[in-house]
Amino acid sequence: MKPPKSNLGDEIRYDVHFVKSHTLQPRWYKIAKVFILIGFLVGYALLFGVSKTLIFLGVFMILAAALHMLYRVKTVKFTQTWMDFVVIHEGGETRMKRIGIFYYSCILLFAIAAVVISQMLG
User: Fold this and answer.
1) pTM for this one?
2) d(Cα 8, Cα 15) in Å, to the nearest integer?
3) 2 domain residue, yes or no
4) Is residue 1 included in any domain, yes or no?
5) Where does residue 93 rank: exposed (0-12), middle (13-18), buried (19+ CB within 10 A)?
6) How many CB atoms lie within 10 A of CB 55?
7) Which terminus of the chain is more solvent-facing, meaning fewer CB atoms within 10 Å of its CB: N or C?
8) pLDDT, tens digit, for every residue of 43-101?
9) By the 8 A CB rule, do 52 and 118 touch?
């Protein structure tokens, strides 16, 4: 028997719920990274202009979404261990360890790539 098909809205709601509820990053960091990104974007816009900033943001968000989808697929919707994403099943409960070096290395590489691309195209 085939599992019922999910629509895109259900999948997005699933991911939003996961992102809000996961313990892969400390709660303070989940909040702080929004302000870090906004501060970076304001500074980038002041230094290089709005068009380069929008290119940077677009490239970075596309790459970050691709990384999210890679983890989503490889971990079967964040339920299985893959690379630095470790899932622990204990006593009928599922929890995850903090995200590791591969994820953060990718984010840093994506930020560098977005800067280079925005400078070349902007």
Assistant:
1) 0.86
2) 11
3) no
4) no
5) exposed
6) 20
7) N
8) 999 999 999 999 999 999 999 999 999 999 999 999 999 999 999 988 888 888 888 89
9) yes
Tallying the residues shown for the chain, one arrives at 122
Average pLDDT, the chain: 92
AA identity, residue 104: Y
In a domain, 43, yes or no: yes
What residues form DSSP beta bridges with 88? 95
Distance CA 82, CA 106 (A): 15
The number of folded domains in the chain is 1
Q: Per DSSP, what are the bridge partners of residue 121? A: none
The maximal CA–CA distance of the chain, rounded, in angstroms, is: 57
Inter-axis angle of helices 101-121 and 50-74, nearest 10: 150
On whether residue 57 sits in a domain, the answer given is yes
Range of the domain at 77: 8-121
